[in-house]
Every structure is written in C-alpha cells, then in structure tokens.
Amino acid sequence: LFGLEELLADELDGLGAEHIKIGNRVVHCKGDLKFIYKGCLQLRHAIRVLVQLDEFEAAGPDFLYEKAVKLPWEDFLDFKTTFSINFAIHSEYYTHTMYASLKLKDAIVDRIREQTGNRPSVDKNNPDYQFLLHISDEFVTIYLDASGPTLNRRGYREESVEAPINETLASALIKFTGWDGKIPLVDGMCG
After folding, report:
1. What is the SS3 assignment for 87?
2. pLDDT per position in the chain (191 positions), as tens?
3. Secondary structure (3-state) at 114
4. Are strands 129-136 and 82-90 parallel, antiparallel or unpaired?
C-alpha cells in the first residue's frame, strides 16, 4: 500500500532479501526460490509477491508480441496448464489496455503451440499460473505472480467476512505503535 514501502523494505531485509530498492507502491529485491516461498508465507506488509520475468521497451502491441513470443514460456507452461493475465497499463502507445493483454496472451499461446504442438488455455477464475503485464509509456515488465491470490488470503481461513481495513494496513498500524509482543495487545475495535 502507498506509504508502507519503508516497512516492507525493512521486512524484506529481515527475511534476507538482497538489492532492496523502494519505488512508488512497490519494493524491488532479489532472492532465490526459497526466498520467494518465505516471502509468500511470512510477509505482512506486502499484498503480492511478483517475480520479474523480463523487461523491455515496446512502443505498441505488435512490438510487445514480437518481444514476448521469444520468452521461454515453456519453462512455466505446457498445453495442460492454464494461465491468466492481469495488467496495469499507463501509456499512450497502448490505447486499449485489453488489447495489450490479448497480444501477450497470443505470444504465450503461440510459443507453447510452437514448442509442443498444442496450446494452453486461459482460465480467469482459477489459473495454474497468473502473470502481470505492467506497462508505463513504452517500458514493459512481465511478472509471474508467485502469491496467486493476495497474501491476506493465504488459505488458512475457511471463511471470512468483510473487514473494516485491509490486513496489510492493520499490520502496519501495529508496527507503527512499536508493540514488541511482550505485553498483551488489546484491540478495542475487534467487536
């Protein structure tokens, strides 16, 4: 969340992240596969864990396709797996954001079909793999979403109700109080 980047950077440092760099509503870092799993299980101030697959310049959907079809999608997918693409696009080169995501989908499908003779399927509701297409002007970044659903839905609850604030924000508020866990914490708002 905006304003919590420093907290997340400190938390990532505590988990052993390397090359931590704070951005606007994002914190970049480096880590191995073990670190990715650790982040998905233990991060409290993050909403998602994204693994950058590639970044490049592409001033339009056709250039996006040309670059993306060269990526080794077969390292993640085969024709039996499903995938979906989320996107965040802010660019004059991509006037129709859905079209840009469709070009990425075409690149993935064409690459897998070329490698295996069959195509994977898109499943928007329950994909095996979820990718994020981020475009700012002509700068394209493609991520694998390692967390799947947002981290506040880690799967330990069978049922939930609507909360008055996001769990990430709640965790940050507790962190800002300086509470160290040595004395009881009373939440007068818990109902």
Report:
1. strand
2. 888 999 999 999 999 999 999 998 899 999 999 999 999 999 999 999 999 999 999 999 999 999 999 999 998 888 899 999 999 999 999 888 899 999 999 999 999 999 989 999 999 999 999 999 999 999 999 999 998 878 877 666 667 677 777 788 888 888 888 898 899 988 776 65
3. helix
4. parallel
Question: Phi and psi dihedrals of 168, rounded to 5?
Answer: -65, -45
Distances (CA, A) of 170 to 2, 8, 23, 36, 175: 14, 13, 21, 23, 9
Residue type, position 128, single letter: D
Task: Give the rounded distance of the alpha carbon of 33 from its chain centre.
Answer: 15
The DSSP output letter for 140 is E
Question: Position of tokens 């905006």?
Answer: 2
Supply 75's token pair.
Answer: 């390292």
DSSP letter assigned to residue 19: E
Distance CA 124, CA 136 (A): 24
What crossing angle do the helices spanning 97-116 and 61-68 adopt, rounded to 10°?
Answer: 30
